[in-house]
TrEMBL record:
<dbReference type="InterPro" id="IPR004165">
    <property type="entry name" value="CoA_trans_fam_I"/>
</dbReference>
<keyword id="KW-0808">Transferase</keyword>
<dbReference type="Pfam" id="PF01144">
    <property type="entry name" value="CoA_trans"/>
</dbReference>
<comment type="similarity">
    <text>Belongs to the 3-oxoacid CoA-transferase subunit B family.</text>
</comment>
<dbReference type="InterPro" id="IPR004164">
    <property type="entry name" value="CoA_transf_AS"/>
</dbReference>
<dbReference type="InterPro" id="IPR012791">
    <property type="entry name" value="3-oxoacid_CoA-transf_B"/>
</dbReference>
<dbReference type="GO" id="GO:0008410">
    <property type="term" value="F:CoA-transferase activity"/>
</dbReference>
<dbReference type="InterPro" id="IPR037171">
    <property type="entry name" value="NagB/RpiA_transferase-like"/>
</dbReference>
<protein>
    <submittedName>
        <fullName>CoA transferase subunit B</fullName>
    </submittedName>
</protein>
Length: 220
């Protein structure tokens, strides 16, 4: 069975390490804030000038002025800092973010990502994604393995305008967890109940399938 949005966020949250500074992109990546593993402390950074972003607020915690880069209301964790977007982008461009999690429309086997424009559709702009892919060395992309009509999103070559080139090293989809190396997608894990055959069928790019591909371990 394909992973839900919440399960995708849970799996990516397992990649967080104690002391990490982490930027979460718009969409599914923002959900990662709700699944930070016990026993570790990370600081979530937002392009609009918040370091120490917490989980989504309850009704009692709601503050309309406390938002993330996607204009969603958030909370601030203990020790959080609020500053200008100029300082926030200086942090990103200076390589001070340990992990970036981005949504994507397309990703190809060379680590290129298209995440900001679909011809014929109104998209507000690239936002901070271009700075994030240029300033970060550790990026995980999250997307569904295929679009609603079944078109693969893991491609030999992106067809949409690129956000960045050769910058994506890992991909988490609703079907699988993959690394990108040697001009290929390398299958590392599969979602519980998902067959390797389904993943192969829905992947357009070159896919390397090891002899043993374990199922993901998700939080209960």
């Amino acid at each position: 069975m394909a992973l839900t949005r919440q399960q995708m966020a849970q799996r990516v949250a397992q990649e967080l390490e104690d002391g990490f500074y982490v930027n979460l992109g718009i969409g599914i990546p923002t959900l990662v804030a709700n699944y930070i593993p016990d026993g570790i402390e990370v600081m979530l950074q937002s392009e609009n000038g918040l370091l120490g972003m917490g989980a989504y607020p309850t009704e009692e915690q709601l503050d309309p002025d406390m938002i993330n880069a996607g204009k969603e209301t958030v909370t601030a964790s203990i020790g959080a800092s609020i500053f200008s977007s100029a300082e926030s982008f200086a942090m990103i461009r200076g390589g001070h973010v340990d992990l970036t999690v981005l949504g994507a429309f397309e990703i190809d086997q060379n680590g290129n990502i298209a995440s900001w424009m679909i011809p014929g559709k109104l998209i507000k702009g690239m936002g901070g994604a271009m700075d994030l892919v240029a300033g970060a060395e550790n990026i995980i992309a999250i997307t569904t393995h295929a679009s609603k009509d079944g078109t693969p999103k893991l491609l030999k070559e992106c067809t949409l305008p690129l956000t960045g080139m050769g910058c994506i090293g890992r991909v988490l989809t609703d079907l699988a967890y993959l690394e990108i190396k040697y001009g290929s997608f390398i299958l590392k894990e599969r979602a519980p109940g998902v067959s390797i055959e389904e993943i192969v069928e829905k992947t357009d790019g070159n896919l390397i399938v090891p002899d043993d591909v374990p199922e993901m371990r998700l939080a209960v």
